[in-house]
Specification:
The structure is a homodimer.
Chain A: H1 2-9, H2 22-35, H3 44-57, H4 69-75, H5 80-92, E1 96-97, E2 105-106, H6 111-135, H7 138-156, H8 160-177, H9 181-202, H10 205-223, H11 227-250
Antiparallel strand pairs in A: 1-2
Helix pairs in contact in A: 1-2, 2-3, 2-9, 3-5, 4-5, 6-8, 6-9, 6-11, 7-8, 7-10, 8-9, 10-11
The structure holds a DNA duplex (30 and 30 nucleotides).
DNA sequence: ACAGGAATTTATGTCGACATAATTGAATGA
DNA sequence: TCATTCAATTATGTCGACATAAATTCCTGT
């Protein structure tokens, strides 16, 4: 099942998949789901958007790093027009900033914004989980149980990446069960913005422990259709996750944005 | 004060302001605030986006109507590239749909989506109002009181447009007081999507009555820093507003999307 | 008269080019 | 040595052109 998942990721990026890690391919798929939501067929624009977006999420491109359209056009062997559009898609999701007449760059996530995002997510996700607990079908339950099992496996194996992506999938399934596409789109977008930090926060064993326990509790609240409990659990978990991030930021655990003189573009006149 | 407001709206649209109503100029400013948030200087793209966005909100362009990029490029005497970008900005706010390889068109708002939007808004706005009630400064209070007075004046004068825009400004000021830019952006975007319908719902005198009373109550909750009350009031008001819209949709009060054969483009070779 | 399909028209996605703004690098002076 | 100013470089915003996909029209057969 994960296999098919990874196979299908290839068509949404431009570079050969062999060089990519599994985590990166997961990232591509998540980005695709959110940023290329309406693009049913992989187009040039969506490929670029997915790949660059995944690179940002996977911290291949760092906070504040320049995303010059000419540089990207060279790299993807296309003109600047589709690159520009791809960057606009990523800006819409908050991964990229495009100041007028200035070079686009990877958006910088300061703690103030993270705080805001987690506050909004806590409230919205609480409501969504509440609805999901009420509306969930047997199919929803089955899917969620399976994802919980995947989560548990990853947790036992201490596999950070696997845990992270299973986590994302669990929340994804949960938001689907609530049958509110608008809420889902907003939550997805907010998730995307903070995915860069998830690895940091989940790298703490105590955090992973709490997170795992939380998911078990949440699952049972949903099974028992205890909407208020699901709401409170989600909010509490978000508060805790935020506290961890606050700590990490305070300790300087988040690499500060590059004072990006852009890296010299070594004009590789190789292709001739 | 409103005078300066209207004067400044001119620079964000492309056509002469003399032909525009006051309501339309208010619409332009609201669109600008949301869609051209980061564009500090009026650029070609933002002008087009603001004007077309305002036309959608003001129902000058109807649900489902085609927005061909060549047609718009002709009208604004520019090339398709900036038009395309302007349409992308409007799509990001949900006012426009751009299917791949098909003509962009004004987004269609069905009742299911309206329901979703109001649910999300109720929850998020409740939380924001709650924060605003807690955090509000004396300046916030003064500004809100003044807007409440404007609301009351418009209400007494039975001036639908004035009431509508004062309403928008009141909520805008309220979301500012909560000091959560992320939440504000989301709420603004959701508001924009439903602004087209506001006139419908507020055209009912009973609805206006309820709305006015609601604002008075809300204002006092904020003055007294009664966060839970502010939360509940907002939610309740949104539920009521939604109920009115459900009724209007059920009665067929919302013009159904044009089966838009696009209007024949009478090639006006006038400019020679 | 009408439905269905081929031919024509029109729009989109992408490209390379240009003018102009921003950025880098060099040169000057304290 | 460092800050400041000016020239050179590089990137952006916009444009018109082209290939190709949709939409529309026209034509044919029933």
């Amino acid at each position: 099942m994960t296999t098919t998942t990874f196979e299908r990721a290839d068509s949404w990026i431009a570079t050969p998949p062999s060089s990519q890690s599994e985590s990166f391919l997961s990232a591509v798929l998540v980005v695709r789901r959110i940023v290329a939501e309406h693009h049913d067929r992989p187009s040039l624009v969506s490929r670029v958007a997915c790949e660059v977006g995944a690179e940002i999420i996977e911290n291949v491109r760092h906070s504040g790093e320049d995303l010059s359209s000419v540089e990207l056009a060279e790299r993807y062997e296309t003109s600047r027009t589709p690159i520009r559009e791809a960057l606009l898609l990523l800006e819409k999701e908050g991964l990229v900033r495009i100041p007028q007449r200035r070079r686009p760059h990877v958006a910088v996530l300061d703690i103030a914004e993270v705080r805001e995002i987690y506050r909004v997510r806590a409230v919205l996700f609480g409501a969504v989980a509440s609805d999901a607990a009420t509306l969930r079908t047997p199919e929803d339950l089955a899917a969620l149980r399976e994802l919980l099992a995947r989560l548990s496996t990853a947790h036992d194996a201490q596999d950070l990446s696997a845990y992270l992506w299973a986590n994302v999938e669990f929340y994804n399934r949960l938001t689907i069960a609530a049958h509110n596409a608008t809420a889902k789109r907003i939550l997805d977008s907010l998730l995307l913005r903070t995915l860069r930090l998830r690895r940091l926060s989940l790298s703490q064993p105590t955090r992973r422990e709490k997170s795992m326990a939380h998911h078990v509790q949440l699952m049972s609240a949903i099974e028992e259709q205890d909407a208020p409990l699901a709401d409170v659990l989600i909010r509490s978990n978000h508060l805790h996750a935020l506290a961890v991030l606050e700590q990490i930021y305070a300790d300087g655990g988040v690499p500060s944005p590059m004072r990006s003189r852009r890296r010299r573009r070594q004009a590789a006149a190789a292709t001739e």
